[in-house]
Design a protein that fits this description.
By secondary structure, the chain is mostly beta strands. It is built from no helices and nine strands.
Length: 143
């Protein structure tokens, strides 16, 4: 049906580098709400990303892909992000939780009709610059 082959389960492990500071940022704030600057959680800001994904936690590690999408502050009381990405990870990322789980709701190319989940753990967060490195374990069924 529809040219689909046998469904496979893949485990992807990588580090997501969200760089908002310095000379070569990969994440840019593109919108904010009237309450963003007075909100403890930055509620209402939206960021476009083209973040590198690496095998290890250091930027000198081999780049294995890029996270291209958006995230937005979506919680007035806790720092939680709504995330939309290329493999179609779409869900709430409760950044202050040790481990966050988000659903995979689709994708494109080899990940067309993908489903599964992603677990995120903050590896490093610089509160002064806003830069972060997040470890991801992604379990995805695809054809």
């Amino acid at each position: 049906i529809m040219g689909l082959k046998t469904e496979k389960l893949s485990h992807l492990h990588f580090y997501f580098h969200d760089i908002v500071s310095g000379r070569h940022p990969t994440a840019f704030r593109v919108a904010e709400s009237a309450v963003t600057n007075s909100s403890a959680t930055g509620f209402g800001f939206m960021v476009m990303i083209d973040d590198p994904l690496t095998l290890g936690p250091n930027m000198t590690s081999k780049i294995v892909g890029r996270a291209q999408g958006i995230y937005a502050s979506a919680d007035l009381n806790n720092f939680g992000l709504l995330m939309v990405d290329r493999i179609s990870i779409l869900g709430r990322n409760a950044v202050s939780s040790a481990v966050r789980e988000m659903p995979i709701v689709g994708g494109s190319g080899v990940f067309r009709f993908a489903r599964g989940y992603a677990q995120a753990r903050t590896h490093q967060l610089n509160f002064k610059t806003g830069d972060a490195v997040v470890e991801y374990n992604v379990y995805v069924f695809h054809y």
